[in-house]
Every structure is written in C-alpha cells, then in structure tokens.
Amino acid sequence: MYIRDLNGCEGKEVMLQGWAANKRDSKGLVFLYLRDGTGMCQCVVALDVVGEEKFNAAKKLTLESSFSITGNVVKDEKQIGGFEIQATDINVISYAEEFPIAKKEHGVDFLMDHRHLWLRSQRQWAIMKIRNRIIFSIHQFFQEDGFVEMDAPIFTGNACEGTSNLFETDYYGDPAYLSQSGQLYGEAMAMAMGKIYTFGPTFRAEKSKTRRHLSEFWMIEPEMAFFDIFQNMDLIENFLRRVVSDVLRDCKNELEIIGRDISVLEQIVKPFPRLTYDEAVRIIKGEQDVNGQNSITSLEDELKTILARIEEVKNEIAEREEKIKTPNMKKGEIGFNQAKIDKLKQEQNDLEEQSRNIPQWLNSARNFEYGNDFGGSDETVITRLFDVPIMVYNWPHEVKAFYLKRDPENSRFARGVDVLAPEGYGEIVGGGERETDENLLREKITEHQLPMAAFEWYLDLRKFGSVPHAGFGLGLERIVTWICKLPHVRESIPFPRMYGRLLP
Ligand code: 4AD
Ligand code: MG
Known about the structure:
The protein is α+β, with helices and mostly antiparallel strands and about 500 residues long. It folds into three domains: about 90 residues, CATH 2.40.50.140; about 260 residues, 2-Layer Sandwich (BirA Bifunctional Protein, domain 2), CATH 3.30.930.10; about 70 residues. The chain is built from 16 helices and 16 strands. Strands 6-10-11-16-15-14-13-12 form an eight-stranded mixed sheet. Strands 1-2-3-5-4 form a five-stranded mixed beta barrel. The structure holds 4-amino-1,4-dioxobutan-2-aminium adenosine-5'-monophosphate (4AD) and magnesium ion (MG). Magnesium ion binds next to strand 15. 4-amino-1,4-dioxobutan-2-aminium adenosine-5'-monophosphate binds next to strand 11, strand 15, strand 16 and helix 16.
C-alpha cells in the first residue's frame, strides 16, 4: 500500500512502509511523519494500543529511519495528504544514523556533496516528480503525433556542435567522442521514418561554471522530413505548450511545494513571438521597444528601484535590531522581530545580487556587436521583456553550426532558430532547417576545420533522395530549470555532472 492510494481506504486497516520525515512525542503518544515516495502521512502510535516494546521502538526512531506501520485510516482534512494512520503495529526496519541534512540552512556545496541524501528532501522530491512528468509528456507528445523514437549512438567519430567542447575517449586505440548531439544520426533516421525523435544523454566539455551548463545533459531531438523552418517553429510551439500544460494540470502539489508562481506558466497559451536576429538585436540594444518597454531604460529604472529598496530594507533591519535590544521585551515579540530580520536579510542579499547583475547586463546590451551570437546576458536582457518564450530565427551563418540551411532570400543568414525562455532563463531550444546543398555543406565542413572523411556518410543523405528537413534540440534540464524556476541547472537532474564535479 502507498500513501497516494489512501483515498477510499477510510476505516480500513492498511500497512505502509517508508522513512521517518519527522517525529514528535508527548505522553503516551508518538507522532511520526511517514514519507514513502508517493506522499506524506502522519501516523499516531499510542502506548496503550501497541504496547510498551513497540512504543519505545517508535519513540527511538531517528530522522530518516525506515519502518513499516499497520493501522487504521482516518480522514483528517487538517493533516498533510488529508489522512492519518492510527497505528496498531509498527516495525522498525533500520535506525538511521544522525542525518547530515537537518532543517537548518546548508550551503550549496554541502548539499551537492550529499546529493544522494538531499534527493529525499521535499523540494528535491517535487522537482524530480516534475522532471518525470516532463519526460512522460515529451514521449506522449511525439508518440501521439506519429514520431518514431530512435536511440542515437553515444560514441561518435565526428563532432556535431563544434570541436571546442568534445570529450575524447579511447575507442580500441582510436579516438572517439562522447556525443554532443544525436542530430546527424537523427537526420539519417528521418529519411527512413519521416519523423523521429531522440531522447538521450549528450556531453559537452565546457570548462565554464554557469547556472546553465552541465557536462552531461539529456536532449530531445526531433527531426522531420519535408519540414521547413516555419513548420519547425510551429511544432516547437505546440510541443512546449503541451509540456507546460501537462505539468500545470498534473503537478499542482509539486509546484506548490517549490513555491512556483504559476501565473507565468499559465501565459504559455499565448503565441510565442517570432523575431528575426536583426529585430532581436535592435531590441537588446534598446533601438526597438517591446509593448512600450525599452530594454535599456527599463533596466536602468529597475536598478534605481532596487537600490532604493535596499536602503529601505537596511533601515528596517536596523530599526528591528534596535527594538529587540530594549529591556523586558517579551520572548514572543523578540522571536517575531528576529524572524522578520532574517527574512529582510534574505531579501537584501537577493536585491544586492540583482544590483550587481543589472549593470553587467546593461553593459553587454549597450555594447552588443551586430553579428555576434547571444551570450547569457543578452538572452536575459531580451527575455525579461516578454512573458512567453520567444523564437529568434535567421542568424548570421558564421556564428551557427555547419549543418544549418543558408537562407535562400539572404545568404548572410542561416535558417537556425533559438527558443529563449522568459524570466531571464534564456535558451532552452536550438534548431533549424538543414542545408540540403552538398557543396555548401562541404564548404562549411572545411571552414569549420572538421575532418571530411568522418562526414561522408552524412553527405550521402544529400545524394540519395535528399529532401528539405528540419529539427531541433530541447535541453531537458534547461526546461526543468525554467518550469521550476530554479536558480541553477544543478537541481534539475538527479546527479549533475558539471565542471568541477563528478561525485556523488
Ligand atoms: O543549441 P544546441 O547546441 O543544439 C544542438 O545540439 C542541435 N544539434 C540540436 C538540434 O537541432 N537537433 O543544444 C540544444 C539545446 C540547447 O538549446 C540547450 O537547451 C541544451 O541543448 N544544452 C545544454 N543544456 C545543459 N548544459 C549544456 N552544456 C547544454 N548545451 C546545450
Ligand atoms: Mg544553441
């Protein structure tokens, strides 16, 4: 029996098993919070029901000890989950040593070192449940639309996304690379199946510590024969809408646990603006407004507001700190003020971080050079002006991958598209229409200094019934991070692999 199935079991006796998430006791009673992975449930163990030996065993339970419990299900709206178990029997499975993760605040490094235990906390549990729903939704969307799932190889003999971030391994004495993307193989499979998608791990040896980069991440890469860039954008939009609406419908509890403001996610029903690179650059540089908002002046105004608020917060902290020093102040009032102070200090920290970031964003927006790829700051500057994801397409061909189709209307551009998530999150999807001209591809491969021999098989696709086609790649962790509004991508995957971390 699992906690999530308690509905309808009122008045029945059930057996549950799990871990002690919390415990308190009073005379003759022990209250245990049981966590079983599907939910939480309060269990009451009474001395006069279970007898002294069992009662003492329950009383000795430490945080995260495992146990099984038998008891009657009682409906109780006040309780988490809406039920309570009145125990008739309890068996301890294993007493836990002192659990390293306590209720108090821990630093991120400590939590990451204890990731194997941290995953049990309610917030991490909720994030992983949302991740799971997103994965399921992705498969549902593509399977229902007739796409065939394909598994691309992990060992590859060629680079797909540039040679600067390849993990090299020893493949029977020859170099092989961990796949950066399944796309090239996806293109081959699309010529066999029509519409395919890959869903697998991909690797980038990026020696950068940002809140967006992992060394190992999961990518979903659909590839569609006979699609152009515009059909590709339609598909991306429907796909992202579907994923978000599934999460909103099925993960209400989880979103509440992590404190996600869902009003932003509810906007995703609106159309996603499609901007050319040229328009996006004008917006970033403040040469073009969005709904009456200007990137530069709105950042300047926000900075002023933040600096003013920091002063207010500092003053209030000082006042309250003075207040709790007054003699004869009641304990309750001291506690109340102290809690306020702690909250204000947290706010001050957040505001100060923003006040350091904004000048950097302003700087990169003002100095953006036409023709460059967008950096993290540029993406933040533009997405802050929108409440839904935006699609930026037609990029200068020099800054994008070799396989993107040159725009037939203007050969300076390639038909690539990036989807940038709102709230400052930035790129979650990269994709585009593929070059079909074999000679142009050969030129690009040479220009990118890639070994032609490793791409002959790929070029074959242009010789044997070549068709227009397009596709895209969604970074699973990027979308989980945005949907959950996490401060860093590391919390979006069970065991993150990133620069400087291989354990646990
Ligand atoms: O933009 P990228 O590099 O595009 C490709 O790999 C194409 N082959 C996709 C395609 O058209 N089939 O990566 C696609 C997405 C990014 O938008 C981002 O969401 C994610 O993969 N991504 C990363 N996520 C976490 N850590 C990293 N280091 C990432 N690099 C890319
Ligand atoms: Mg990209």
